[in-house]
Amino acid sequence: MVGSTPTFVRRKDDEKDNLNKPKRVSLGEALHLKPKEEHLSCSSSAHDLRHLEEEKEKENIASPRGTLEVCMNDFDFDSPPLAKREASCSSTRAHNNWSNFFKLLKKKSFKRLGSLTHFISPKIPKWKSRSSRESHVLSKLYNFNSSWVTFNPSDLRKATHNFDSENIIGRGGFADVYKGCLQDGQLIAVKKLNKGTTEEKTAGFLSELGVIAHVDHRNTAKLVGCCVEGEMQLVFELSTLGSLGSLLHGSDKNKLDWSKRYKIALGIADGLLYLHESCHRRIIHRDIKAENILLTENFEPQICDFGLAKWLPEQWTHYNVSKFEGTFGYFAPEYFMHGIVDEKTDVYSFGVLLLEIITGRPAVDHLQQNIVIWAKPLLNGNHIKDLIDPSLGDDYDRGQLGCLVITASLCIEQTPLLRPRMRQIVTLLRGDKHLMQFPRARGNRPLERTYSEELLDAHEYNSTKYLTQLKRHQEIALGMES
Ligand SMILES: Nc1ncnc2c1ncn2[C@@H]1O[C@H](COP(=O)(O)OP(=O)(O)OP(=O)(O)O)[C@@H](O)[C@H]1O
């Protein structure tokens, strides 16, 4: 057992229109300003697991047991891979600004990198007004990204017709999102935090802003600026098609033909790879789900909602959290069993998302059936045809489907060690056999599992136990406990 078992925090809000959406565990409540307990401390099994993985990756950058290669050969990859896209890094200037920002804050600890307020607040004299403290933080952030626009409340009121409810385009657990149009004609989405006290909203606002500040990739949401007078609001470029979740599980599903789904899967993978590896800091998103993928008019996916995202310092193997935040249906087993957060927890959520894209089913359906529990037997029995969204008919590319199915099944492996990294996933999804075979060509060790891995797998992540636990945790979390 690793660390303390996380406590479930049940979501309180009862948005009627969100009933069929995956339930996000209340960040609002968890944030209720008692800082979450997060620690570096790893118990031996978590530590060993990560250590084993790192050792293995040093020796051999292919999949831990050769599954990838085997699977790759089982499918037909005749269809041409899509053009390779490069993950772009933010500019050097941005990097320097970010370093300066932290120097200015005289950082002592990176314990809660996703939440700026914790190490900012003590630096600001208590007698100063909130707006003065916020201004201090924001002026540093604005130094970091000078292209952001500071909106005043009247700009945003005008843009959204006084926050007319007609203009609401999204309702999350913590914010209402309004569509708006600026005077120069630019379409925007205004994220207005609506849950919790002013303190809590400020914490959430700064936390999201602090992460998104240095995220710059074509598959991540684009921040235009923000408003801090009165209520705090984040302003993004509008993604005209809304979220992947609303399309996939709504009446416009027919817009998502196979080629669009494939493109979306690749784009999300590119975005996640960027967050994990190409950004200046390792960012773990922690809430990858269909509702947090926005779509531009060209069906380019953009990862949004960095409200839970964490920066993971290079030397850390993982975070250990004691409270659940995120969305049911997307939780990795090591997260709900041990509170472990790292890249592989995002990989698991991405696997669930891939299953949604393939099957058209939600992560947790109206009968509370978990998509992983539903799909596992079909994946194990290779009943691929039974997985495919019936609304697609026969209209899909067999090779591309094969890539998505293989990737999904690896991403939802119960043992994190057996899940590929985003780098490998990007390769897998494109069906690039050449790259996957590269390590063998270099004469690396054959891909065998070690005894301890076998033990660990058998002992801690026994498949039946895993599925039972998955079901049980979901029941507890959703209040269905008998
Ligand atoms: N830039 C945008 N363009 C179009 N729609 C958007 C945009 N940003 C957000 N939305 C819509 O608003 C919804 C909620 O946004 P977001 O996920 O940021 O809010 P939240 O309160 O943090 O949600 P969650 O419950 O996941 O925490 C999204 O699912 C999406 O439908």
UniProtKB/TrEMBL annotation:
<comment type="similarity">
    <text>Belongs to the protein kinase superfamily.</text>
</comment>
<keyword id="KW-0418">Kinase</keyword>
<dbReference type="GO" id="GO:0004674">
    <property type="term" value="F:protein serine/threonine kinase activity"/>
</dbReference>
<dbReference type="InterPro" id="IPR046958">
    <property type="entry name" value="RBK1/2/STUNTED"/>
</dbReference>
<feature type="compositionally biased region" description="Basic and acidic residues">
    <location>
        <begin position="10"/>
        <end position="20"/>
    </location>
</feature>
<dbReference type="InterPro" id="IPR017441">
    <property type="entry name" value="Protein_kinase_ATP_BS"/>
</dbReference>
<keyword id="KW-0963">Cytoplasm</keyword>
<dbReference type="Pfam" id="PF07714">
    <property type="entry name" value="PK_Tyr_Ser-Thr"/>
</dbReference>
<dbReference type="InterPro" id="IPR000719">
    <property type="entry name" value="Prot_kinase_dom"/>
</dbReference>
<dbReference type="GO" id="GO:0051020">
    <property type="term" value="F:GTPase binding"/>
</dbReference>
<dbReference type="InterPro" id="IPR001245">
    <property type="entry name" value="Ser-Thr/Tyr_kinase_cat_dom"/>
</dbReference>
<keyword id="KW-0597">Phosphoprotein</keyword>
<feature type="domain" description="Protein kinase">
    <location>
        <begin position="163"/>
        <end position="462"/>
    </location>
</feature>
<keyword id="KW-0547">Nucleotide-binding</keyword>
<dbReference type="GO" id="GO:0005524">
    <property type="term" value="F:ATP binding"/>
</dbReference>
<comment type="subunit">
    <text>Interacts with ARAC5 and ARAC10.</text>
</comment>
<keyword id="KW-0067">ATP-binding</keyword>
<feature type="binding site">
    <location>
        <position position="192"/>
    </location>
    <ligand>
        <name>ATP</name>
    </ligand>
</feature>
<protein>
    <recommendedName>
        <fullName>non-specific serine/threonine protein kinase</fullName>
        <ecNumber>2.7.11.1</ecNumber>
    </recommendedName>
</protein>
<feature type="region of interest" description="Disordered">
    <location>
        <begin position="1"/>
        <end position="30"/>
    </location>
</feature>
<dbReference type="InterPro" id="IPR011009">
    <property type="entry name" value="Kinase-like_dom_sf"/>
</dbReference>
<dbReference type="InterPro" id="IPR008271">
    <property type="entry name" value="Ser/Thr_kinase_AS"/>
</dbReference>
<keyword id="KW-0808">Transferase</keyword>
<dbReference type="GO" id="GO:0005737">
    <property type="term" value="C:cytoplasm"/>
</dbReference>
<keyword id="KW-0723">Serine/threonine-protein kinase</keyword>
